[in-house]
Design brief:
Elements lengths: L2 H15 L1 E3 H8 L3 H13 L4 E3 L2 E3 L12 H6 L2 H13 L6 E4 L3 H7 L8 E4 L2 H9 L3 E4 L3 E3 L4 E3 L1 H7 L4 E7 L2 E3 L3 E4 L2 H12 L1 E7 L11 E4 L5 E4 L13 E3 L2
Parallel strand pairs: 4-5, 4-9, 5-6, 9-12, 12-14, 14-15
Antiparallel strand pairs: 1-3, 2-3, 7-8, 10-11, 11-13
Helix pairs in contact: 5-6
Length: 248
């Protein structure tokens, strides 16, 4: 089978199933794992799919009504996410009071946080643990723990947020769209994100290029309510937006 034929078949399977593994593709296409991995790398660089650890996901996965697991999402578009994470982490200054939203992009950002004199609040247990290991002072919101995204949600979390006034907040989003705003699949997470953004003086949304011009189920903020940190804008029409910054 010629390379172009494999590419077409891989894209057909990915778009049909939304997520496929390298093992599945090797069996269907009757070819080696090394060939499939090279093909996925090529298609990822072309922007045709998202290569993740052990397989690939469709570009439209952000528009689905359910979140992928945190482990899977953290590996999506990893090079772009690292560039965004490093830039975002460098924005934190001494004496900042920072809110860190649950999510894979913000989780990666914590790896690059160097400012220990800032105070951090988060609704993600994993974020809190990583911050503690860095020697940071951190507060964890109370409420219900959502299994898939490991986010704390619910009325108790929202009530806690009312007491805080953050200098900076960092958020993830499944979709960023000029008309539909910032979106996520789950209403309980959307309500926490919405309240947290209201409490922030400066709001930053970490969104790799695959999230731009995508729409998920629930809007938690208007498009212009945060500074969008992204990379390699594929839609040229977004380049003119004053609240979008290409980093890396």
């Amino acid at each position: 089978m010629l390379a172009e034929e494999r590419y077409n078949e891989i894209l057909r399977l990915v778009n049909e199933k939304k997520t496929v593994t390298v093992q599945e593709l090797t069996e269907v296409l009757d070819t080696s794992e090394s060939t499939i991995r090279r093909d996925l790398t090529t298609l990822h660089k072309k922007g045709s799919l998202i290569k993740v650890h052990g397989g690939a996901t469709a570009l439209s996965v952000e528009g689905m009504t359910r979140d992928a697991s945190l482990t899977v999402r953290r590996d999506m578009n990893i090079e772009e996410k690292v560039a965004i994470a490093k830039y975002a982490a460098a924005l934190i200054e001494k004496d900042d009071f920072v809110y860190l939203d649950a999510g894979s992009s913000v989780d990666l950002m914590i790896d690059y946080i160097a400012e220990q004199e800032a105070i951090y609040v988060t609704n993600a247990i994993g974020h809190a643990q990583k911050l503690l290991q860095k020697g940071c002072r951190v507060f964890l919101l109370g409420g219900e723990l959502k299994e898939v995204t490991e986010a704390i949600v619910g009325a108790q979390a929202i009530d806690s947020l009312k007491r805080y006034n953050f200098t900076k907040g960092f958020f993830g989003a499944n979709g960023v769209h000029r008309e539909r705003g910032l979106t996520t699949p789950d209403i309980t997470e959307a309500l926490v994100k919405e309240k947290a953004m209201e409490q922030c003086a400066n709001r930053y949304v970490l969104a790799d290029s695959t999230k731009i011009n995508q729409i998920s189920s629930v809007t938690f903020a208007g498009f212009e309510e945060g500074m969008i940190l992204t990379t390699r804008l594929r839609d040229a029409s977004y380049k003119a937006c004053k609240n979008i910054l290409e980093v890396g």
